[in-house]
Amino acid sequence: MVVTDYGGKIEYQDIPVPKPGPNDILVNIKYSGVCNSDYHIWKGDWIIQAPLPVVPGHEGAGIVVAKGANVTNFEIGDYAGVKWINSTCQSCEYCESGWETVCPTQTNSGFSVPGTFQQYTLANAVQAAHIPKNVDLAGVAPLLCAGITVYKGLKEANIKAGEWIGIIGAGGGLGSLAVQYAKALNYKVIGIDSSSKKDYMQQKGADKVVCFDEVE
Question: Which cofactors, by name (predicted)?
Fold first, then answer.
């Protein structure tokens, strides 16, 4: 799927299968999540627009079918995930301190390089995610953006096991993932959302719920 005009028709096109560079893996995408960012990339309403044409998508899960000469951490047939960060320099002060998200020379799947709304796409082997063979690829795909986003937030909060954490929007897409991650980390969770999502928050594991439309 290719965006050739901001806000225009998304086209199906035949695209040559790319060849991996020395540090890349070629992934046969089996499933891809759809992120709200994909909508904005298509609309072109960010301050920095994606160069056109572009293949959107950055939540891709699939199988490694080829790799570059320097790649040692993936083998053909491995499951791999393609994320928003496709590659980084790995040598700037940000990369060396674990903040690749602000690397000034990073490339981004579905934005500056072709993304996961296609059958085959490339990813730098260092940034690609390893996926166990016993995991459902369809379930993994959305975790490669939404899941990473909320997990990072939980870890940065410096909450200890047994402590309480409040999650606003706990009945939504990212919020419900945050509840599940928090419970897996043994946090006590207060889910905050509308009363229409009360049962859903409890189903996902919230210990307490606060419904903002019921609070006086």
Answer: Zn(2+)
